[in-house]
Amino acid sequence: xxxxxxxxxxxxxxxxxxxxxASDQRHNVVVxxxxxxxxxxxxxxxxxxxxxxxxxxxxxLRTLPDLGRDPFALETILAxxxxxxxxxxxxxxxxxxxxxxxxxxxxxYRLFGLAPEPLPETSFTIGIDEPELMxxxxxxxxxxxxxxxxxxxxxxxxxxxxxRVTNARLRVDANAGWSREQALDLIPRLAxxxxxLVEQPLPxxxxxxxxxxxxxxxxxxxxxxxxxxxxxxxxRDVVKLAAGLDGVVVKLMKxxxxxxxxxxxxxxxxxxxxxxFSCMIESSLGVTAAAHLAPxxxxxxxxxxxxxxxxxxxxxxYAGAKLTLPAGPGLGVSAVxxx
Length: 339
Ligand code: MG
Hints:
Elements: E1 2-18, E2 21-35, E3 38-44, H1 54-62, H2 74-80, H3 86-104, H4 108-111, E4 124-126, H5 131-141, E5 145-149, H6 155-165, E6 169-173, H7 180-191, E7 195-199, H8 209-219, E8 226-228, H9 235-241, E9 247-250, H10 252-255, H11 258-270, E10 274-278, H12 284-291, E11 299-301, H13 304-307, E12 313-314, E13 317-319, E14 322-324, E15 334-335
Helix pairs in contact: 5-6, 7-8, 9-11
The chain binds magnesium ion.
């Protein structure tokens, strides 16, 4: 298979601020794998808190050994990839799946044995800003599910301001921005505003913290589901943290692609956990790959393309919060034709 790399720059519709930092533009990498006249595509998102940049992802991908001629040897090919960034591996994994689907003439969800509907609706993310501005953005969006980024001094004011202007289902994502004590103080207060769930309330490395937090919250009668995102990258992490969690957030850029994402989902189910499928700032290429596993999930947070002003791809389609999977073979993604 011939491998080609294309850097892409994604312009964000509004400055995106989370507990880790802020950005207006993201720089991802598109991987193309060509075999027998067909080309599979995948995307690697450069996530700064994992230490990745567009350059480092490209540098790793340039070092890859020959991947052979058979994309169906997925497990073998992926197992032989050298140690490197999960996002880069995810792009290779996506491109291989895309190629397999194209060779068989079937969309990916069918290869996974899944029906394309019904799918859970996706949330729409409101980045950190002044409480009133966040509330205005939530109101204007009109989305029925809002994910609120928190992790500042004003978290309760933010959630309260947003609740005043919308009846939407509200999810809160602290992006590891709270300590144990802050989480224990804030979650019961925020629960008053009828939260659907709380994502990553604790620091990434605080593996014992989840069980501690769950027990303390349950003692107070607080049942708000707690999900881990940054703390859970692969199925091994699901096993380590399961006892303290209600659910996990799965992302292709953490798992290194669809194969390990599927293992994460099954591992989480085996532990009685719920699953949210989410994305980084990714174009319709990466997000469509994720969406092919959406029928297996309870919650979706696949709003990447909605946050980007210059999406170079079309794939999964949005009607408000409702996603429709493309019916084309493989990922079913195509380039947006330039005017
Ligand atoms: Mg998150």
